[in-house]
Write a structure and sequence with these properties.
alpha/beta, Nucleotidyltransferase, domain 5, five-stranded mixed beta sheet, 3 helices
Length: about 110
């Protein structure tokens, strides 16, 4: 099963494609989010698929997370980034007890 994750953040949209065991990154793409979250996600997905030399039909499951997760219509499910952070931390470092997230919305320069 090939899976894809899309993190639609307030400043950047990140896409990753994982192999059947979810332990090998087949491809990824990072783009500035801009005003149209869904369009940005579609472009990021297209680039990531091209890099991996696969098509959208090869993807078995797509999950979106982040600030704009609900703006992406072509995913199978959504989860908050907090849930995703916890799952990722547990997968990579089972003894981890804390995750610090400072995203673009929280760290952007307020002066423009």
């Amino acid at each position: 099963m090939i899976t894809m994750g899309i993190d639609a953040g307030s400043t950047a949209t990140k896409t990753v494609i994982l192999d059947a065991n979810n332990d090998l990154i087949l491809s990824f793409e990072i783009r500035h989010t801009g005003a149209d979250v869904e369009e940005t996600a579609r472009k990021a997905v297209e680039v990531a698929l091209n890099k991996a030399r696969i098509s959208l039909e090869d993807i078995d499951y797509i999950l979106s997370t982040g600030w704009g997760r609900r703006s992406i219509s072509f995913t199978n499910n959504t989860k908050t980034e907090i849930i995703c952070h916890a799952a990722g931390a547990f997968h990579l470092v089972p003894n981890a007890r804390s995750v610090i997230d400072i995203g673009g919305q929280d760290s952007s320069n307020s002066n423009g």
